[in-house]
Amino acid sequence: MNKLIATWFYAGLLPKVPGTWGSAAALPFAVVLHALGGFPALLIGTIVVFFVGWWATAEVTRGQAEHDPGMVVIDEVAGQWITLMPLSYVLWSHGSSVTILPWPGLVGGFFLFRLFDILKPWPVSWADKKSTPFGVMFDDVLAGIMAAVVLSIGGYLAHGGFS
Predict the structure, then answer these.
(1) Residue 97: what pLDDT?
(2) Are 7 and 59 in contact (CB under 8 A)?
(3) Which one of 42, 56, 92, 155 is most buried, by most CB atoms within 10 A?
(4) What is the pTM of this model?
């Protein structure tokens, strides 16, 4: 069970770029959560994924030399969902009848999160250096927050923020 969770339904076992696969596999679940309950569902889902992912990561890496093996992608799920929270919040708070997250936000959020997760600017790099299951989860939380900020600014500008 812990491997199923840590690899996000085995997406982390796909070849070459497990973090990207994990991020991509997180998107449909974010869309479903938003459609079912809007921003509150995505927020609660993210909190649950963070804590369950922290536990699953601890279980999968217990006794292993590698504290952050590539197959563990539950951290990417949490970070990807955090990236999409502003988009979900805006739609939900405006009472939008849109039950699905619009594709420009999904695609932009996906690439922004991957960018921050791969480049690891400070403080993502600081959290990444922690050799604990919490550090595995928290660096992606920070990357997700940074991507969410940039995605929010992009959305603001794309919708005529300064006009």
Answers:
(1) 65
(2) no
(3) 42
(4) 0.93
